[in-house]
Amino acid sequence: MTSLETLNLEIDGPRATIELNRPDKKNAMNPQMHRDMNRALDLIEADGNVKAVVATGKGDSFSAGMDLEECFLRPFDDPMEFYRTNKVALDWFMRIKAFPAVTVAKVNGLSFGGGVLLAGLCDLAIASEKALFGLSEINFGIFPAGGATWATAHNLPRKAALYYILTGDRFTGAQAAEYGLVNKAVPHDRLDAETDRLVGMLVNKNPVTLALAKQVYEHNRATDLPAAIDYDQAKLWELSRLTSNEWINVALKQFEKRAYQPGLKTYQRAEVPS
Ligand code: ACO
Questions:
Q1: Could you tell me the distance, in angstroms and rounded to a whole number, from the CA of residue 64 to the centre of ligand 1?
Q2: I need a labelling partner for 45 at 20 to 30 A (CA). Which of 38, 91, 113, 209 fits?
Q3: Quick one: 15 and 134 in the same domain?
């Protein structure tokens, strides 16, 4: 485990866990945490073997969002300081959205503003039924910025998104699952097990395929069918080359021998030279 000033990072083979570690401040993201988050992502990328990254919070909170004092109030009077402070945050928000490994938010408790953003930017999310979400920006006179409106609009239906953006009202883990902000809400004592189960389904897949599947999803949801098909074709050839045609030479050969059923599980990657 690597302990950064405001985060704990654990890399265990193909799994990494980033734990926000300011529990006495409800894991509010201060400038140090933004720097630490970039550092954690650097370390995970440098490791080269991680296929799934879990983001979670220590204590009773996932994250109370941006540290309102350290990120906004204190640097506000110095425009360059304000810009620099917040750019470090915006950098990792964009990075985590496009991260090559699959990102999973394990929402263990309170999740406000930037906490909703982080859950929304992750590819997948599991929430505790005890989790409580809110876009509190309207309650201090701004709208959700830094990608938070984007993340809300891309994860919640329109009426629900606007309701929470405009009122600052809270919603539960179960509601987050109904809206689609998280894949599932589970009893708090099942959160670790459910997250492990989800991660377990990812880590036996080909990492190149996981990364390209994410890219294809993001591209294709924003384009028309002919452009999507073109992109699929190009990415499929890229995938084939980058994986030495693993899908043909290994996966479909195993299917040909009736060694497994792709509808039910993943092929055996142990036969693949790493
Ligand atoms: N920024 C800075 N400090 C924070 C933040 C935050 N976002 N959230 C909580 N804290 C601090 C509290 O001020 C308090 O500090 P203190 O011990 O020095 O007084 C400590 O964390 C504990 O918080 P409490 O308010 O005592 O905890 P409680 O459980 O009663 O309430 C709640 C939790 C509802 C989350 C409350 O702390 C709150 O409203 N926080 C602000 C939430 C928010 O507006 N987030 C910003 C969203 S905007 C964005 O992210 C862009």
A1: 6
A2: 113
A3: yes
Which residue, of 202, 220, 253, is where some domain finishes? 202
Residue type at 206? N
The number of the ligand 1 atom at minimal distance from the alpha carbon of 110 is 35
pLDDT of res. 274: 41
CA dihedral 215, 203, 17, 125 (to 10 degrees): 60
Q: What is the pLDDT of residues 186-230, one digit of tens each?
A: 999 999 999 999 999 999 999 999 999 999 999 999 999 999 999
Q: What is the pLDDT of residues 164-185, one digit of tens each?
A: 999 999 999 999 999 999 999 9
- Quote the number of domains for the chain: 2
Q: Are residues 235 and 267 in the same domain?
A: yes
- Tell me the per-residue pLDDT of 83-95, one tens digit each, with 9 for 90 and over: 999 999 999 999 9
The closest residue, in CA terms, to atom 31 on ligand 1 is 26
DSSP state of 71: I
> For ligand 1, is residue 25 a contact (CB within 6 Å)?
yes
pTM: 0.96
Give the domain-ending residue among 202, 237, 252.
202
Tens digits of residue pLDDT in 58-75: 999 999 999 999 999 999
Binding site membership of 135 for ligand 1 (Cβ less than 6 Å): no
31 CB under 6 A from ligand 1? no
Residue 128 is part of a domain; what is its CATH number? 3.90.226.10
Q: Can you give the residue range of the structural domain that contains 237?
A: 207-271
Select from 22, 68, 71, 117 the residue to mutate for testing ligand 1; criterion: most ligand atoms less than 8 Å from CB: 68
Strand ranges for the chain from DSSP E:
2-3, 7-12, 15-20, 52-57, 61-63, 102-107, 110-112, 124-128, 132-134, 170-172, 184-186
